[in-house]
Each structure stands twice: as structure tokens, then as C-alpha cells.
Specification:
Keywords: Allosteric enzyme, Cytoplasm, Hydrolase, Metal-binding, Protease, Sodium, Threonine protease. The protein has 176 residues and is α+β, with helices and mostly antiparallel strands. It contains 4 helices and 11 strands. The N and C termini lie far apart (33 Å). The mean pLDDT is 92.
């Protein structure tokens, strides 16, 4: 499992994640990259769950972005629809966060598309810890989005055994 968190603050959107790959209760790798920038569309993606499933979903999402000229809302909607209705895709076990300069979404295989109202969202085994930490830091500090993401992931890593402190963080300037 893993932890992925996204924060919008000021003119930035930041998505970060840890690097732990676990198989059951065993840490198999500590340096995985579960957050990536899709530079062609200026979109950041992050995933929690099965790596092969997540890579498949990221590729399908990128195809949807290409097909819909970078329109993230349409791409997210079409991916969720396809993921839920396709017999093979329905079995994929992952969650995705995607963010561009304007919007952030959580996408699930059950058809959920969540656009956070406060600009903060998280997924994965340590997601609730990171979410709580990020919301507290947004409400009670003037820290920039990148620092909030980093501190939230560090807090989650100190609590969740399926999260480590080897972080990957990507950011974009957003439309304020």
C-alpha cells in the first residue's frame, strides 16, 4: 500500500507520495515512484494499490486526455465510466489522484469521482493520516502547498506501517 496526498494553496497544486511497496506484511521496495507528471498535458497523477493496475489506469487516463484534447473533466469521467463498465478493467485494484492547474480528482473503480471542496485529498493506507495532517496544516499555518504535502506524508509515515518517508513530490502552478 502507500500514501498519496494532494494540496492546492495559493498558485500551486502539489501531489506527493511515499515509495514503499509492500507484499502482505513485507516491505519489498522502498523507492517506488507512485507520483508522476504527464508533461504533455500538465497533469500530475498518483496511485495507491496494485502497481500494474495503476500503471494500466494511468495509461488509459493519458489516452483519454489525448482523445479529449487535455480536458481533464471529460478524461476523468470517461476513465471512471470505462473502469466501472469494462469486464477486465473492473477487476483492477487501485485508486488514482489526478490534478492539473485547475482541478483535482480522486477516481475509483466503483465509479467515484471526487473533486475535493477544500483543495486537499489523499488516498492509500496512510491516506487518512495524511489527509488529517494536511487539513490541520492548511487551517493553522501559512506553509506553502509543497511543505504541507511533505509534512503530511512524514506524519503518515510515522503512523502507517505501509508508508515510508522516501517521498516523490510534483507541483504545478495553478490558476488562482
Amino acid at each position: 500500500m502507500t500514501t498519496i496526498v494532494s494540496v492546492r494553496r495559493g498558485d500551486k497544486v502539489v501531489v506527493g507520495g511515499d515509495g514503499q511497496v509492500s507484499l502482505g506484511n513485507t516491505v519489498m521496495k522502498g523507492t517506488a515512484r507512485k507520483v508522476s507528471l504527464l508533461p504533455k498535458h500538465q497533469v500530475i497523477t498518483g496511485f495507491a494499490g496494485s502497481t500494474a493496475d495503476a500503471i494500466t489506469l494511468r495509461d488509459l487516463f493519458e489516452q483519454q486526455l489525448d482523445k479529449h484534447q487535455g480536458n481533464i473533466v471529460t478524461a476523468v469521467t470517461q476513465l471512471a465510466r470505462e473502469w466501472r463498465s469494462d469486464r477486465a478493467l473492473r477487476k483492477l485494484e487501485a485508486l488514482m489522484l489526478v490534478a492539473n492547474k485547475e482541478r483535482t480528482f480522486l477516481i475509483s473503480g466503483s465509479g467515484d469521482i471526487i473533486d475535493p471542496e477544500d483543495g486537499v485529498i489523499a488516498i492509500g493506507s496512510g491516506g487518512n493520516y495524511a489527509l488529517a495532517a494536511a487539513r490541520a496544516l492548511v487551517a493553522n499555518s501559512e506553509l506553502p502547498a509543497r511543505d504541507i504535502v511533505e509534512k503530511s506524508l512524514q506524519i503518515a509515515a510515522g503512523i502507517c506501517v505501509f508508508t515510508n518517508d522516501n517521498l516523490t513530490i510534483e507541483e504545478l502552478n495553478s490558476v488562482a
